């Protein structure tokens, strides 16, 4: 059995990036109780799942008794939230415990969310309720299984205390998550705002070493870093769009340098396809609507470019010009990733000019608003000769018939389609139902969902309910950030 002394954290962030964090300790967790643990992920990280279940293991997962090798810190960052700039955000209720280097050499942060107030807490209580932490666990694990780059969830531990939210007292919890790093666009904004170019340079060098080491060989390593982040984000957002994922809070502090999805708050998957879909109660203007996500990503990357300008060239005009050139590449990178993904979703053969089919499909989906997930999944039936199931998804099937005919004439491959079009996604109504049960003490629905979502492409008998959209009459889904 492992002992705390055997858990070897490294602390390169703390070692290299003084000025971008504050050392801080977790608040006590009066009665910690393990609610969920991803055992396979634990093993990948070199942690013994049995040990994580012990009192000592919970000391790590709550941050209350971290191993000797860990240095817990609250990371500093700034960020544009809904377009408005906040110079000092940072981990208000989270801590970086340290980095674990897996046997395969992969370095991952272990980070705790809900571990108590830090100097960045502003008015917040530093705590997290159980339901939103379970929500992040469920959705991030689903995203991982869907093949989307994302932070992962290692564990949820109930703390034994209650936290006050608008709805009343709720059980408190801590989410232990991993990420290839927690560097955000907002981290660069914070570093740039110090006005100390050395801080910014150290951060950029650190990001290059950790995420894009080959940039170091480029003529302008920092411009190359920017290009890689632009490409990684273009690919990520395309994946979200294919799956109908709405992040909900694409603030610059919630956009990673690694290209992983981070910070699952008021996120949701589309039921009916709708570019204007917004699920977050705090997004009244629809800034982060489904269809706006690519544009917002580019807007955030422009803020990243602004932060990098001092490193790009001594002549600011040259720096801005070069950054603008790279930023303009976002649209092409995004459209290429988007179209390549839709080609697979439609099972189209290589070499075919898919542009007319894709353009018409976008218009058709926006007009007929079928269930996003089922529409693509049932297209495989149509490819196999039975268009009934997909026609059933729209009020007026004649709207889709012309398109279906042109698409089928292209010879789509349903086998390819079934590997990329999931049948099971974290349906909002099912997630809410499972979380409600969990808060009342019944974890079984959450366990079921995790099991279903771990294999989103394999249709299984007895799981029909998990593939169904909410019934007619169900109130439109809204997530009250409530994190
Ligand atoms: P998020 O919406 O989770 O990405 O958080 C945005 C910012 O608010 C971050 O700086 C968080 O650390 C901070 N924050 C969110 N909830 C709390 C809380 N309950 N207590 C302290 N800070 C919080
Ligand atoms: Mg955040």
UniProtKB/TrEMBL annotation:
Cofactor or coenzyme needed: Mg(2+); Mn(2+)
Regions crossing the membrane: none
Positions bound to Mg(2+): 254, 263
UniProt superkingdom: Bacteria
InterPro entries: SelO (IPR003846)
Role played: Nucleotidyltransferase involved in the post-translational modification of proteins. It can catalyze the addition of adenosine monophosphate (AMP) or uridine monophosphate (UMP) to a protein, resulting in modifications known as AMPylation and UMPylation.
Similarity annotation: Belongs to the SELO family.
Matches recorded under NCBIfam families: PRK00029.1
HAMAP family on file: SelO
Annotated protein name in UniProt: Protein nucleotidyltransferase YdiU
Organism: Pseudonocardia nematodicida
